[in-house]
Design brief:
Blueprint (H helix, E strand, L loop, with lengths): L12 E5 L3 H13 L3 E5 L2 H10 L4 E4 L8 H10 L8 E5 L4 H9 L4 E4 L4 H93 L5 H9 L2 H33 L7 E3 L1 H11 L1 H5 L8 E5 L6 E3 L1 H22 L4 H10 L16 E8 L4 E8 L6 H4 L19 H12 L3 E7 L3 E9 L6
Parallel strand pairs: 1-2, 1-3, 3-4, 4-5, 7-9
Antiparallel strand pairs: 6-8, 9-10, 10-12, 11-12
Helix pairs in contact: 2-3, 5-7, 7-8, 8-10, 10-13
GO molecular function, one term: phosphorelay sensor kinase activity
Organism: Lusitaniella coriacea LEGE 07157
Catalytic activity: ATP + protein L-histidine = ADP + protein N-phospho-L-histidine
Length: about 450
């Protein structure tokens, strides 16, 4: 509690608790003449009621009181969170060392022996009020430092995120440009190549019809190249190349949609298109043949309108949430041991656990829907290991991570929170139960205003 001693617009409030009227009258007049506001109580119940109604800045407390002694009064005041910081100076005729020690043990800050000198009382009162004032200032500075640190961490997180997004856009642009030209060349030549090959095969068949008896050298060449198999397999090869080119075109398109290259910062987009492009870019992590079971993705899209949003940033949210789901499922399937050990070191709910119940069918569910409040909801859920309440409560703190050193910055979910809540004025909620998986719920307005 901050003292009012240096507040020229308010007087410090002092409560005197004593059952001797002469003492109360003497102290009251003396302190009021020095500019203090004085309240009086002649027993414990009156004192506790006065303190509860309006906590004073300081209490002068006698020990020998009717019904309840000063030690008990002090103990009860200090046990109440609302009044625990009020300084209490004991004012008593008891001058035994044990009495003074007990006064300090129950929470007193000073002890004055009766009969007292008024100037001594004033000096001790001023000293304790000064201490309270300085403690209040220190607490205020600490709160300011905490706020500044939080703002600094958020600013640092935003700067890192901006650099990542710029780097991602530049990388996407470079990859798309470098790959798109040669793939377009290959794609454009596959169709005429197929026609040329078919023409050549037709010509060979015509030769076979006109010259049914090949020479020995030609027959040996036909046998060596397994001509009949070559003809049948050539069509499969051409089909495989065409499908490969189509796949690369799809990846490039997904990369462009994900990074939103060459588009304005905020625009109206199809949320499902962004989700699909993100899933496409994570196929290498979802499948990973030979290492663990393939992670199934079950998509259930609602009938969403186009959403005005920061599209590339929102896609970054989807990427972070899906990557986290994959990390959790790798642990749940018996992989990702380094991540598992880091979770154990942070998550107190894992203490004593030696193994996880392995998930045989790792799955990620992605669902979308609209609400009656002109918002859209995106749910990303997995059947991984889940998390404790302790871990869940810290998820969105800047630089908090459950990954080993060097495996994560702890900025992913903090960045997601800033993008969804601060940038889009939406909501980002995590629902998780240990052993039952995790669900992230993203809710954003259909129309986001420029900020």
């Amino acid at each position: 509690m901050m003292s009012k001693i240096f507040d020229h617009n308010a007087k410090a409030d002092i409560l005197i608790v004593d059952d001797t009227p002469a003492n109360i009258r003497l102290l009251s007049v003396f302190l009021e003449d020095r500019g203090y506001n004085v309240r009086k109580a002649i027993n414990g119940n009156m004192a506790l009621t006065a303190v509860k109604m309006i906590p004073p800045d300081l209490i002068l407390l006698d020990i020998n009181l009717p019904e309840m002694n000063g030690y008990e009064i002090c103990t009860r005041i200090k046990s109440d969170e609302q009044t625990a910081t009020v300084p209490i100076i004991f004012l008593s005729a008891l001058d035994d060392t044990l009495d003074k020690v007990k006064a300090f043990q129950v929470g007193g800050v000073d002890y004055i022996t009766k009969p007292f000198q008024l100037e001594e009382v004033l000096a001790r009162v001023q000293n304790q009020l000064m201490i309270q004032e300085l403690q209040g200032q220190l607490q205020t500075r600490n709160e300011e430092l905490k706020t500044a640190l939080s703002e600094l961490q958020q600013a640092q997180s935003q700067l890192i995120q901006q650099e990542k997004m710029i780097g991602l856009g530049q990388l996407a642009a470079g990859v798309a440009h470098e790959i798109n030209n040669p793939i377009s060349f290959i794609s454009g030549n596959l169709a005429p190549a197929r026609e040329y090959i078919e023409d050549l095969l037709d010509l060979i068949h015509l030769y076979q019809e006109e010259y049914p008896q090949p020479t020995k050298a030609i027959q040996n060449a036909l046998d060596n190249i397994e001509f009949d198999f070559l003809i049948s397999d050539l069509q499969n090869l051409m089909g495989s190349m065409e499908r490969g080119v189509e796949r690369i075109h799809a990846v490039i398109l997904g990369l462009r949609i994900f990074a939103r290259l060459g588009e304005s910062d905020i625009k109206t987009v199809d949320i499902h298109q962004g989700l699909d492009s993100t899933i496409l870019l994570l196929q290498h992590r979802l499948k990973q043949p030979g290492e663990r079971p393939e992670i199934a993705t079950i998509v259930k899209y609602g009938d969403l309108p186009k959403v005005t949003c920061y599209a590339s940033q929102l896609n970054q949210v989807f990427l972070n949430l899906l990557n986290n789901a994959i990390d959790a499922l790798e642990i749940a399937t018996g992989h990702g041991e380094s991540a598992k050990s880091s979770v154990q070191s942070i998550d107190s709910s894992l203490e004593g656990e030696t193994s996880f119940s392995l998930v045989e069918s790792p799955t990620i569910w992605i669902e979308t829907e609209t609400t009656d409040c002109d918002t859209v909801i995106i749910r990303i859920r997995d059947n991984g290991i889940g998390m404790s309440e302790k871990t869940r409560s810290r998820l969105f703190e800047p630089f908090f991570t459950t990954k080993p050193v060097g495996k994560g910055t702890g900025l992913g979910l903090s960045t997601c929170y800033q993008i969804v809540v601060d940038k889009h004025k939406g909501k980002l909620i995590c629902n998780s139960t240990r052993g039952e998986g995790t669900e992230f719920v993203v809710e954003i307005p259909i129309f986001t205003t420029m900020t």
